Amino acid sequence: MRKKVHVLVVAVCAVALAPAADAQLLPGGLPSLPGRLPVVSDVVDGAEDRTTRTAQGVRDLAGLDRLKALLRANPRVLEPDDQGRPVVRGEVLAVSPSPEALRRALDAGFVEARRERSGELGIELVTLTPPRGMDARQAVRRLRALDPSGDYDFNHIYAGAGLVGVAGLAAMAPAAGGAAGARVGLVDGGVEASHPDFRGVAIEQRGFAKGAPKAGTHGTAAASLIAARDYGSAGPGARLLAADVYGVGPTGGSASAIVGALAWMSAAKVPVVNVSLVGPDNGALRAAVKALVGQGVLVVAAVGNDGPAAPPLYPASYPGVIAVTGVDKRGRALPEASANGQVAFAALGTEVRAAAPGGRKATLRGTSFAAPVVAGRLARLTSSPDPAKARAAVAALGRQAKDLGAPGPDRTFGAGEVEAGR
């Protein structure tokens, strides 16, 4: 009989520490350890959803299914979209609405909650709250009817994708700025910049959600795979811009937070941005990614862990994004890796070692932890946003990648496996 696994579903990224024999589930992650696994994900103010599931049941807590669990745990601040996916309750995102369209919305009882203008991305994001008694689904339909040519969408919640087992204490030491090296942007959870693995690494960190920046397991691990002094794929002297889009509440990881982070990356002229987050197509996110790609920024994203039969996940499925899948140490595709028609590269996605909060080390699994390796390597091949430089960097990395599967690029592995290298 299959053993039961106890899962504590608390939020979107993992931060709680556990003994080596335990595991931690990040959204989209797959536990690979046998027996009873206490699995903890972070950053919620109070709300908890405790369930008992079989090992196969945990496998169902990938990507969008994991987000739906978050929705059930936080009905006061989240509500479902028309597909049952979690969105911030009572918010609709209007992408660069015309003054006339905005006036019609206000006349219909909507209230302007926030207005965020990004000159670099060429986007003005207006957050509208609907009239009393109107849910987000009704609100989106109403705004689209008022302005059929406009771009209105939910404020979707996005999740990371990976499993983290944390063990072992290390002495703490402050990070220090190093010599100029590759510049990389990271849109994720918070990073523990004082971790000893970041000695000599220049990290600039900003928060785009309540309580951010707040160090978490997912963000710290992804950051170290890019920029760690001894094993980061960006090489010595790397400079990291880390945007925490999660912070401390269940509305962390929202589309509006991610768009704000991408606007910062655009203003900072970062040539490569890693986004190891997954979720549905979203008008605001789509517009921001399109603008970044048009500027010649290499947006690198994990394909997610919903399995090859799942629908496409975003931002990895947007045109121009460098989609990354995960493989094991024998070069085989991870069985949980999502299908994606534009996979560019593969990288190791299981038994990966990286930094974790508290000066610890983590054992990682998931496509979330393959993407940072590719992002760091690309950052070593281009120094500034430029479409021609971006194409040249991708081509150069393709020549360096280890071919997997059938000869030449293919839909499963892209150009092949990328290793961190030094």
Describe the structure.
This protein is an alpha/beta fold. 23% of the residues lie in helices and 27% in strands. The strands form five sheets. The protein has an eight-stranded parallel beta sheet, sandwiched between helices. Strands 5, 6, 7, 8 and 9 form a five-stranded antiparallel beta sheet that branches. A hairpin with a 3-residue loop joins strand 20 (350-356) and strand 21 (360-365). Helix 6 packs parallel to helix 7 (283-294). The termini are far apart.
Which features would summarize this protein structure in a list?
single chain, 422 residues, alpha/beta, 9 helices, 22 strands, 23% helix, 27% strand
Helical content stands at 10-25%
Counted by DSSP, the helix tally is: 9
Strand content: 25-35%
The unreliable regions are: 1-61, 166-179
Q: Name the overall outline.
A: globular
* Structural class estimated from helices and strands: alpha/beta
Query: Mean pLDDT score, rounded?
Result: 83
Count of β-strands? 22
Strands of the widest sheet, in order across it, are 13-14-12-15-17-18-19-22
Distance between the termini: 46 Å
Q: How is the main sheet built?
A: 8 strands, parallel
Topology:
Elements: E1 4-9, E2 24-25, E3 39-40, E4 49-54, H1 55-59, H2 63-73, E5 78-80, E6 86-95, H3 99-107, E7 111-118, E8 123-129, H4 136-146, E9 152-156, E10 159-160, E11 163-167, E12 183-188, E13 202-207, H5 217-227, E14 239-244, H6 255-267, E15 272-275, E16 277-278, H7 283-294, E17 298-302, E18 322-327, E19 343-348, E20 350-356, E21 360-365, H8 371-379, H9 387-400, E22 417-418
Parallel strand pairs: 1-3, 12-14, 12-15, 13-14, 15-17, 17-18, 18-19, 19-22
Antiparallel strand pairs: 1-4, 2-11, 5-6, 6-8, 6-9, 7-8, 10-16, 11-21, 20-21
